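Friendly challenge for the regulars: who can give me the structure tokens for this chain first? No prize, just bragging rights.
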Amino acid sequence: MKIDLANFEVPNIESWKAQVQQETNKDKAIIYENNIEDIQIDLSNKDSNCDFQTGKESLKDNEWDIAVSFIVNESFVDNKSILKCLEQGANHIYLNISISNPNWNRIFENIIFDYIHVTIAFETELQIHSFRDFLLKENEKDFTISIDPFCFTFVELFKDTKVSYSLNAFGLEQIGANTYQQVASLLYAGEQMLQQLIRPEKIKFEIGIGSDFFIEISKIRALKWLWKHLLTENDFEYNEIQIMGRSGWSNKSTRDPHTNILRQTTEGLSAVSGGVSCLLLHATSELSKDSSTWFDQRMALNISHILREESYLTRVNDPLKGSHVTELLSKEIILNSWNLFLKLIYSETDKVDILLQEVEKTRKQKIDAYVQGQKKLLGINLFSVNNKEMEWCNIPDYLELEYLIYEKLNKQ
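First reply, four minutes later:
Bragging rights claimed.
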């Protein structure tokens, strides 16, 4: 059967705009506005120059690590739960060390580093010195140290090793920062790290993954493009950027675990579509009074496995490349991020104060949108569930702001 395409007419953009406005009864139906992200784009504007190469085109497969997180505190007895997750297919361990003097031999007992990677977030210098004493030279390449974008205390301690550094903007996303505030902080930290290390291959990134599907994809694409641009401008050879995408708790519920799974799935999908090299879906119960449950950890791992093994997402790199909406959003986030990055670089005032002022404004916008009912979350402020088996507990803070969890606002 031969299809005759002669009768198909080239779409007329003006007639399309008129039809959309007629059907929606809105003059601005083709205008996307997001005040929180400081984005306004005309979807009918066919910008032929809006095509951002993210630098992953040379790779054959879109592979990513499947990570699982653990909090090592005073209640830590053995690493059975870590081994259990590794047996279920995790190949990346993320450790938050909150115990003063961790027993590293017990933490890593029976773990073969040849097959996994470990990222560690420290709190004190005593912890990191004890880790240096434990670390063997042949295992240095298997470890990454999580670094706050505005505090490089631990950098010098591993400068002469093969240990890599992960600049961590997850806390910013969790306290309410928008996309360009997160990306700009990572660019600023990356530029500062380059001055100390002069080795871009040792620099990685951690970024939070929120609920706005296309915004999150575009955020990751923007970070990749900007890091490549920054390296090129400073005469560094570009290496493939390593990004860990972390899905957190802002839009999760302790009372509606089924909706949590749906949200974790879409967030994981946006992260790998954007091009992360590692995906960490935090168990919702990690911040509950009962801490992480095995069921929640297993479900988070299963989501990662389905995305990697059954969805064929590993077969294509940058799947949203060329999508008109994604390219326009990427462009806006790139411009906003670069402007804030320049402000951080050239301002003589405290960098943290500059960023904190920006974040506090965005956080207030997000809270107001939720309280006023403009932001609707199924199972939280829309068709909420009355299950009270778990409650939020020990909520972390960053820059003296508690993590923004919408469900907790219901009680305030």
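The chain has a mean pLDDT of 89. The domain at 1-412 is CATH 3.20.20.240 (TIM Barrel). Your move, everyone else.
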